[in-house]
Amino acid sequence: MAAIQRRKFDTLIIGAGGGGLRAALKLSDADASVAVVSKVFPTRSHTVAAQGGMNAALANVLPDNWHWHMFDTIKGSDYLGDQDAIEYMCRAAPKAVYELEHFGVPFSRLDNGKIYQRPFGGQSQNFGGDQAARTCAAADRTGHAILHSLYQQNIRARTHFFDEYFSVDLLKNDEGHVLGALIFNIHDGQPIIIEAKTTLLATGGAGQLYRTTTNAMINTGDGLGMALRAGVPLQDMEFFQFHPTGIAGRGMLITEGARGEGGYLVNGDGERLMERYAPKAKDLASRDVVSRAIATEIREGRGCGPNKDYVMLKLDHLGEAVIQKRLPGIRQTCMTFLGIDPAEAAIPVFPTAHYTMGGIPTNRNGQVVMPVKDTPEEVIEGLYAAGECACVSVHGANRLGGNSLLDILVFGRAAANHIIDYLKENRYHRSMDEASVNKAMARFQRWDKKAEDGGESVSALRDELKAVMEQHCGVFRNDEVLKEGVQKIEQLAERLKEATIGDHSDTFNTARVEALELENLMACGLATMHSACARRESRGAHSRIDYPERDDKNWMRHSLYSFESGLDYKPVRTKPVSVDSFPPKPRVY
Ligand SMILES: Cc1cc2nc3c(=O)[nH]c(=O)nc-3n(C[C@H](O)[C@H](O)[C@H](O)COP(=O)(O)OP(=O)(O)OC[C@H]3O[C@@H](n4cnc5c(N)ncnc54)[C@H](O)[C@@H]3O)c2cc1C
Q1: Domain range 434-546, its CATH number among 1.10.12.10, 1.20.58.100, 2.40.30.20, 3.40.50.10420
Q2: With a 6 A CB cut-off, is 402 part of the ligand 1 pocket?
Q3: Which site from 511, 557, 574, 575 is most exposed, i.e. has the minimal number of CB atoms within 10 Å?
Q4: Taking the complete model, does pTM exceed 0.85, yes or no?
Q5: Class of CATH domain 245-351
Q6: Is the bond preceding 45 in cis, omega lying within 30 degrees of 0?
Q7: What is the pLDDT of residues 379-404, one digit of tens each?
Q8: Which of 120, 136, 242, 388 gets mutated to test ligand 1 (max ligand atoms within 8 A of its CB)?
Q9: 46: Cβ below 6 Å to ligand 1?
């Protein structure tokens, strides 16, 4: 075989969503040589789909401050979020918004010219008081505006892009330093070794684990799979967010901003259902609360439609002008996919898989950390993670709407700042362990095996995995259903070892990509199901019918799942940096 091409950079960033591009911009502006690898053209990364906006206590519409934002985020996380990281994020939020404004993001405006802010779920003034309005939006196309601005800024800063290249696995030396990755060109299948002094994983979430999802086909948890195979455990994977308002049966998102603008949910009896579950916050309660409320209404026979299997989101009372000004994208989505104009009729909605709260454990600098028994955590030299694939952990057991765009920008930037310092101390490339290259190449070449060699098809296994996740790890869970889920997913993982892909003589290696993605999804599925089965309490998005209460005494700790040692746990960081802790309280909205 011809020698594999090698390229050298100071930093390799895998992922060109908001997290990866924010980091890349900071590094390129600091004159580091930066390679950004993305399996899709950068502006097709999933950040482009973010609708409702980004949280920051600017106080442009109602009184606000970062400390209230911090309280809401900790309460929203059901007290599983790390309070030092949450403090850092909420303090940094206004600056992150103003930076974006200066990069060219066309935020919606108030009549006085300030940035428009809408109310979102779980937001309050004065530590649990009246509703706040904290979410900065560019109509309902905020992610689109952010991603395009960041991409243009990276072009200006001369970031080097590897567009439509797929990253297979991380590469290391025998001391455990991460030194780059094996990638391949999806167009012609040619592998390339990227040697880098630092590597940042910014590969987004794993929403494709579920059949009905708001996530794009590309969200297959690739960074999480790469981390697990490199020996890094995944943290808090049992916490998967179901968004209350996916279009029923189809999954496309109707942003929480729709309820922020005054929309509300009604059941089959025409009642405003959230009054029963969250008397104060109503439709703007936290997402886990609203999703459970909808699932309960349907389970108790108060759903809508012939099969009573969804509820309705009403916006028509807002009037066409408001909908067209503030929610033009979701209006278009409803007209295209449902033939319904929300200015005239209600939208059928159902809780839909949306966001991966768990991920690769990092500290506030984006450094990937490993748990070490009874001692402080150790960092993995040269490896960073930011964005939805990371777990820093600011979302804990339940993410607040508008906090993910904030997370990816704040921690993308923080990781870049740390990398800049690291590069000053680590000026030369270390030599790579060839065994690590061979291992990654073996995984890449394993999918040369064709259908005619026998074995099950990858696409059929992928459908089965999604069905198992949906049936055994959904909004409500119990021991019996989860244990069965663990068994089924273990069997699927075994069967995948013998699977084959169809004819991959296709020009674009799509079948090979799908197979590699399924391996990553399977890794995420194993971590999610095992972690969920073990956690015997209800907290945030993890709702156990057999253990309905939160159990702070035994379970206020992060789970860690690895291939090598199965499940382990580590404490929540309850001490912020400069303010008092928020101790756990009953969570009512
Ligand atoms: C429909 C929708 C609406 C949302 N709206 C909001 C909102 O209004 N506010 C909010 O705060 N959050 C929102 N979110 C969540 C938020 O958009 C995401 O969490 C966030 O954008 C993720 O950004 P990221 O940079 O981590 O990853 P992504 O934007 O998902 O980018 C991942 C990148 O990794 C690359 N990649 C992945 N695997 C590989 C591989 N193997 N090789 C090479 N490249 C790879 C991809 O090509 C891509 O470039 C929404 C989510 C959805 C699904």
Answers
A1: 1.20.58.100
A2: yes
A3: 575
A4: yes
A5: alpha beta
A6: no
A7: 999 999 999 999 999 999 999 999 99
A8: 388
A9: yes
